[in-house]
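Handout, section B. The chain below has 247 residues.
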Amino acid sequence: MTTISVVIPTRNDADMLAVCLAALARQTRRADEIVVVDNASTDDTAEVCAAAGARRIAVELPGIAASTACGFDEARFELIARLDTDSIPAADWLERVAAILQEAGPLSAVSGPADFYGEGRFARWVGRRIYIAGYFWAVGWLLGHPPLFGSNFAMWSDVWDRVRGSVHRGFPLVHDDLDISYQIPPEVTVIAATSLRVQVSARPLASWRSVGRKLSMTWTTFGVEFADEPPFRRRRRRRQWERDHRR
């Protein structure tokens, strides 16, 4: 059986983390390890990890990009699955992740969307119909392949080995999922599995301030990525690789 590490970056979200870890405990295919990357929490995160049997790693470098990269570096198994603290995966989530990636082959990654919970009905509608749908459509067009969504994705560890040296882990205002998506080389297949869903909190969409912060991070991330390689040059490089390897 393919082995799986689950990585969860967190900061001062002990209550939501407990719910996420409880959902992982109910999986039909259990994780071989759960790595919680604790970015300087001051709440009960350590106690929640201990109670659930999760391996907690303390990270002082600020930012989600640093936390995710550290967790992926520490992951010890063949597949690396990624959830956010507020993610609540269905009971067959890991079973389905493993099946999809085993069928796709050793250089592949998979990501799915989310259903939002909490906050108001309008925030949940915006999350599903505009935020998630827009992210997969717009960023997918820009990349030339589906993007990874941080609350719900997984990859073979060999894929991480190919991008770990190029991700921007030292940039606190960079979105880790968008950064990893941009660094994925042409030989890696990225699968958008629309039926591979998790629940996530609608709190980032609860106010204009929180929405503005997410948009600001998105523009910052694009600025960092485009400075290294302009997007159309990246698309041309990927398309050329695909043409060369279809012959």
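Note. The first strand starts at residue 4 and ends at 10. Compare this with the example in section A.
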